[in-house]
Amino acid sequence: MGDKVQYIIAMTAYIGAVIVIGFRYARRASESTANYLIGGRSLGPWVTAMAAEASDMSGWLLMGLPGVAYWCGLGEAIWTAIGLLIGTYLNWLFVAKRLRTYSQVAGNAITIPDFLSNRFKENKKIILTIAALFILVFFCVYASSCFVTVGKLFSTLFEADYVYMMLLGAVFVVVYTFIGGFLAESASDFMQGIVMFITLGVVVIVGLIKVGGISEVIENAKAIPGFLDFFGVAGPQMADGVQQVSAGKPLFGEAVKYGPLVIISTLSWGLGYFGMPQVLLKFMAIKNPNELKMSRRIATVWCAISLFVAVFIGIIGRVLYPDSLLTNSDSERIFILMSSSFFMPLIAGLIMAGILAATISSSDSYLLIAASAFSKNIYHGILKKDASDKQVLVMSRVTLIIIAIIAAIIALDENSVIFKVVSFAWAGFGATFGPIMLFSLFWKRVTRTGAIAGMVTGGAMVFIWKLLVRPLGGIVDIYELFPAFVLSCVAIVIASLLSKEPSEEIQKEFESVKVYRHYE
Q: Cα–Cα distance between 36 and 30 in angstroms, integer?
């Protein structure tokens, strides 16, 4: 049996299992927009934890992060992983239960824009509109990164044209999400979180065996200047975007050292968690908020092991295949190369279903939340307030298709670097929603004016810093999330203090959340 046939069998079996889950929840998803968009707040602790992390990490975990480690070594990859781990834990610790409670108290909100709008009791839906528009923009970018992932996966496995393979994957994701909604997405994310975890474990163990153990990895990696440096990165010698090779060995220049500001900006990946709609929505969807403590433990352990194993896979991959992937974009295929080299095609196909799992678990979340931002918040909240639940549900699905088309257009460039695409969208969400989410949950004095100022400042600064400031280099060449997040916080505080304090109704509701008791 040919390799490609075995890959197809393995992938088809996996896709079949995902489709079954979609149809399993199709009827419940069609009952109401609440079921379709947030699952009727019915998730258990394990599904909440695994769905949140799987939808968050996406194919970036299996391709983007190992690719960074393969390309320039430990430094950037490990600090990013540490930042994400800290952010994961703090988000579950401080935000999860408070948001679950507050979203129910504040008009039983089922989307992030809904919650923010209800929190400030706005009549003119300015906050809701701004939030929905930023979600649409950044999730189009985020979904495109998932389509790039599946395009690279399928084109590598089947030696087929990238564009056709990317479009094929996009169609599957859209059909699946179209049918099953939030419940199907969450249930499959639970399964996919397990698949991703097992996949990472199997590949790193076999990789260690192939290379001869950890000591061999360290000894070989040390030969590359700065490759195992915590405070710097290796510098591949490039010509026309391709790393140069001499006598079968890839060439590296002097290591680039990290200063404290660069480390802080890399750690700031963790700040993004406070504004990630796909994670925050899972907090809102758990049935019993008292079970969030268990979810936090599950999510933190999963995240810690998965992140550091993904980094280590990239390091092992550089030792085993030093000159196989010679561009930044191609380096993100190291997981695929290792899997296809280590195992017979049928097993490799099942293992690489982990990449497909990661992609599906994220892109369905992104598409669903973006669709809800328009259908629930803009269409129903502003354009057609008398729309029936059925009409809103139909609009959600129509919007989902349109967003997927836009994301696919963005993903047409085969040379897109997944890590860079994700980092931009991550910064966008983190700076737009992170600060105002924290202030909304924990500061009674924050005002509607402060919320608007913070969201606009954070979202705009991501674009400004990325496109205009960062290219200047030097001290300002830092990840755009950090300055945008800080400036958003400053804008919220200043605008809130300069505007009239919140109404008595808003302040009483804020205080009531502290003593609210759930009866499940």
A: 6
Residue range 362-399, pLDDT digits in tens: 777 777 778 877 887 788 877 788 888 788 878 888 88
Q: Which residues touch 70 (CB under 8 Å, ≥6 apart)?
A: 314, 315, 317, 318, 325, 331, 334
Contacts of 384 by beta carbon, 8 Å cutoff, 6+ apart? 391
Q: How far is CA 424 from CA 142, 166, 355, 449, in A?
A: 9, 21, 21, 26
Domain positions in the chain are 3-515
How far, in Å, CA of 399 to CA of 392, rounded?
Answer: 10
Are residues 412 and 61 in contact, defined by beta-carbon separation less than 8 angstroms?
Answer: no
Q: Which residue has the tokens 């860079």?
A: 420
CB 311 within 8 A of CB 290: no
Nearest-angstrom CA–CA distance, 1 and 11: 15
138 contact partners, CB below 8 Å, separation of at least 6: 425, 428, 429, 432
CA distance 53 to 43: 14
> What is the average pLDDT across 201-223?
94
- The 10s digit of each residue's pLDDT in 306-351 is 999 999 999 999 999 999 999 998 999 999 999 999 998 888 888 8
**For residues 256-268, b (16+ Cβ closer than 10 Å) or e, as one string?**
bebeeebbebbbb
CATH topology classification for 3-515: Sodium/glucose cotransporter (1.20.1730)
Region class of 137: left (phi > 0), else alpha (psi between -120 and 50), else beta: alpha
Q: State the pTM of this model.
A: 0.86
Distance between CA atoms of residues 427 and 435, nearest Å: 12
Neighbour count for residue 213 (Cβ, 10 Å): 10
What span, in angstroms and rounded, lies between the C-alpha atoms of 223 and 160? 36
Please report where in the chains the tokens 């700076």 appear, as a residue: 431
List 238's β-bridge partners, or say none.
Answer: 243
Q: Nearest 10 degrees: CA dihedral of 355, 356, 358, 359?
A: 120
